[in-house]
Amino acid sequence: MPAAEHKRAVIFDTDIGIDDAMALLFLHYAPTIEIVGITTRFGNASVENTTNNALAVAEKFSISAAVYKGAAGPLGNRLGEGFPTHVHGENGMGNIELGKPSLQAESIDAAHAIVNLCKQHESLSIVAVGGLTNIAAALALDASIAQQLDDVVIMGGAFGYSGHRGNVSPVAEANIASDPLAADIVFSSEIQTSVVGLDVTHEVVFGKDFIQELAARAGEAGRFIREATDYYLNFYHSLSGEYQCPLHDSCAVAFLLRPDLFTTVQQPVRVVSEGIAIGQTIHSNDIRRYVSEEWDGIPKSNVCTAVDAAGVLDLYQSTLALAGE
Length: 325
Ligand code: RIB
Ligand code: CA
Prior knowledge:
Blueprint: E1 8-14, H1 18-29, E2 33-40, H2 47-60, E3 67-68, H3 85-88, H4 110-120, E4 125-128, H5 133-141, H6 145-148, E5 151-155, H7 174-177, H8 180-188, E6 193-196, H9 198-201, E7 205-206, H10 208-217, H11 219-240, E8 245-246, H12 248-257, E9 262-271, E10 281-283, E11 300-307, H13 309-320
Parallel strand pairs: 1-2, 1-4, 2-3, 4-5, 5-6, 6-11
Antiparallel strand pairs: 7-8, 9-10, 9-11
Bound molecules: alpha-D-ribofuranose and calcium ion (CA).
Alpha-D-ribofuranose (RIB) binds at residues 15, 17, 19-20, 43-44, 129-130, 155, 167, 173-175, 248-249.
């Protein structure tokens, strides 16, 4: 049987900034994956910029998946406003010159594209590395996508494992805080979700040596990542005094490819959608019998609690090395 028949169909749902681009290239060069659509949303930059970034990266690296523009804003309240230009630059890609791609976004939007792609593929996963607005909107269009999708692997949230808490408030992670209501809709739906939060992404950190190795091994992809991550490394240096960045979004791709690198618990997840803890992700616990009924009847998610960080970094390097061959 030809190798292509074994490939796993995946939608990449993204607010594509620097670490999202690293994750997109990870998915693209993974031999077992076929990217069947790229859906964009606001987040690291405006949806106009993230869509341009997706098109530019797709064009530069001959990623054949169509790009669908998605949400320009959240379904409900969000924490904060504007875009994190101090982390991802004005264009969301560390201010590197991307130019205007000749590729164009499709005429249908991301939510409709998700619904259509679910119908076209017998087996389909989503790797969601921005907030969950597009997926919640797709569920509103057609709730049966919950049964049609195999799973959604989400980079988002923070549950407090290994001492890791929020990155945009003491309890909230940026993707979930950008649309807490959408996240709560997705976690409360029948979709099989896996949550790759700060609990594990803050354990998987890379520095300049990792980037130099990529630049040496991964051809044009490695050189692109070196250029784009310069701004990102400088931001993290301003926070901690060290050139060390979490490999956030690529951890969701790693979970899809090698779930054995992660430890998980299976629990229902809810998201706080207002007040001082807006954006906080909270999972339930079987041990207790709670007075609150808010987690009753919510399907269980796989929540990542620990990770083989060296294994994820090795998997990233060895997969990207295929780009240099
Ligand atoms: O909190 C980390 C997440 O926020 C990542 O997906 C990053 O790209 C930003 O969107
Ligand atoms: Ca992201």
